[in-house]
UniProtKB/TrEMBL annotation:
It comes from Niabella digestorum. InterPro entries: Mur-like_cat_sf, Mur_ligase_C, Mur_ligase_C_dom_sf, Mur_ligase_cen, MurD. Pathway: Cell wall biogenesis; peptidoglycan biosynthesis. It catalyses: UDP-N-acetyl-alpha-D-muramoyl-L-alanine + D-glutamate + ATP = UDP-N-acetyl-alpha-D-muramoyl-L-alanyl-D-glutamate + ADP + phosphate + H(+). PANTHER family: UDP-N-ACETYLMURAMOYLALANINE--D-GLUTAMATE LIGASE. It is found in: Cytoplasm. This is UDP-N-acetylmuramoylalanine--D-glutamate ligase. The gene is murD. The lineage of its organism: Bacteria, Pseudomonadati, Bacteroidota, Chitinophagia, Chitinophagales. Belongs to the MurCDEF family.
Length: 462
């Protein structure tokens, strides 16, 4: 554990010393979770958000007696903190972050804070440029099928820190981004999964692909000999760079191109081997279809096998798995156009992750109640992948300002039905219509579930 981490633990536990001053930058799901955990562990917590907080988060903070601010930052107070927990959405080039770094104040991510207090619980952590949400969800489903008491946390599910604070579990399945890994110190997954690495997020990594690659491999840096690192042997970037990192854990690879490693697919069958045990299963029994999902299924099955889950339970789970509702949920394919419901994406980070996973030309349905969104965060992905934007909201001015001249088509709509019909009119066979709004839903819908349900109904009615 690092020196700053030791200081945090020691001060927080000593009643005769002043409590550690812990500042949380960003009052979203992860930030509020970190605040609740910090408060529970005796820290003096202050939450600061440049945008506005959701009512539900304001109430949670108030109920816990945690001070907070929105619409700006009290720099004097922030720069007197002992430690800062930074939202993964805040880049290093942010002026306030530069000032915090210049003062030498330790900056950590929410997953680092949660790790410190997780006790003896096991961690399965999944990262990668594509497929991590599906792989994370599948691993969680396998554990639940096998009656393992686990929590789904991180970028998908609940805040890791909040779960540790309020409902601790013996196993945490954590989806982690490169941004979260950038600010770890001691975070150590028992099982680390790297799905793949593609050239992304370069604006956050000084347009240096190797910086991003190093960030992804940080998932292994604290692992020990008894831990596992599961990776895609067919991913050229992963295999090209893997030997440049000191990895102490047991390495297990999966492949569709070669019959070696811990898992592979041959003649339509998946083989999973860990130790002396092995299992086989036909890919035609997978509920997840497509080549990319065969990789995800191998990764998830391998992770479960290292947990000594019975192969019958792994098979059962792979045959019954469905993606979470409203989170990258396949709705239907109509005349060659795929419709995906990601209504749970209520912030720009979530939309960013959704777009990152798109492998076909995309018509993006975007908009709603803006919470101070910086649409520039999406710019590179939109340029690369989006052929049209359908705005679904009452005030779409910022979206137009951000993407006029970047995307050839930007259209306004005010209902799910209109949005779906409009998106379909611009789609061609082989395209994807992605509802990933990046905004709250309260201008036109009761909540994100209502928005997703109306979207699905409109697709089915086409």
């Amino acid at each position: 554990m690092s020196a700053s981490s030791d200081k945090h633990m020691t001060l927080a536990g000593e009643s005769d010393r002043a409590p550690v001053s812990l500042v949380i930058l960003g009052g979203g799901e992860s930030g509020v979770g970190a605040a609740l955990l910090g408060k529970k562990k005796g820290c003096k917590v202050f939450v600061s958000d440049a945008g506005s907080l959701k009512d539900v988060y304001r109430k949670e903070l108030d109920a816990a007696g945690i001070e907070w601010e929105e619409g700006g930052h009290d720099e004097t107070r922030i720069l007197s903190a002992d430690e800062v927990v930074k939202s993964p959405g805040i880049p290093e080039k942010n002026e306030l972050i530069k000032k915090i770094r210049a003062k030498g104040i330790p900056v950590i991510s929410e997953i680092e804070l949660a790790y410190r207090y997780k006790g003896d619980s096991k961690i399965i952590a999944i990262t990668g440029s594509n497929g991590k949400t599906t792989t994370t969800s599948l691993i969680y489903h396998i554990l639940k099928t096998a009656a393992v008491d686990a929590a789904l946390v991180g970028n998908i599910g609940d805040s890791f820190a909040k779960c540790v604070a309020e409902d601790p579990k013996p196993v945490y399945v954590v989806e982690v981004s490169s941004f979260q890994l950038d600010d770890i110190q001691s975070f150590r997954p028992d099982i680390a999964v790297l799905t793949n690495i593609t050239e992304d997020h370069l604006d956050r990594y000084d347009y240096n692909f190797e910086n991003y690659i190093r960030s992804k491999f940080r998932i292994t840096e604290n692992q020990r000999a008894e831990d596992y690192f599961i990776y895609n042997a067919d991913d050229k970037i992963t295999t090209q760079y893997i030997d440049q990192f000191k990895i102490n854990s047991k390495q297990l690879s999966f492949s569709m191109e070669q019959e070696k490693g811990a898992a592979f697919i041959k003649d339509g069958d998946m083989y999973v081997r860990t130790g002396d045990d092995f299992m086989t299963m036909s890919v035609y029994d997978f509920t997840l279809k497509g080549k990319h999902n065969q990789y995800n299924t191998m990764a998830g099955s391998l992770a479960a096998a290292t947990m000594e889950i019975r192969k019958e339970k792994i098979r059962e789970a792979v045959q019954t798995f469905q993606n979470l509702e409203h989170r990258m949920e396949h709705v239907a394919t109509i005349r060659g156009v795929e419709f995906i419901n990601d209504s749970k994406a209520t912030n720009i980070n979530s939309t960013w992750f959704a777009l990152e996973s798109m492998e076909k030309p995309t018509i993006l349905i975007l908009g709603g109640v803006d919470k101070g969104n910086d649409y520039n965060l999406l710019m590179d992905l939109v340029k690369e992948k989006v052929k049209a934007i359908v705005c679904l909201g009452l005030d779409n001015k910022k979206i137009h300002e951000a993407f006029e001249g970047v995307v050839p088509v930007i259209v306004d709509t005010t209902s799910a039905e209109d949005a779906v019909k409009t998106a379909f009119s611009y789609a061609e066979k082989g395209d994807v219509v992605l509802l990933s709004p990046g905004c709250a839903s309260f201008d036109l819908f009761k909540n994100y579930e209502d928005r997703g349900t109306q979207f699905k109904r409109a697709v089915i009615d086409l």
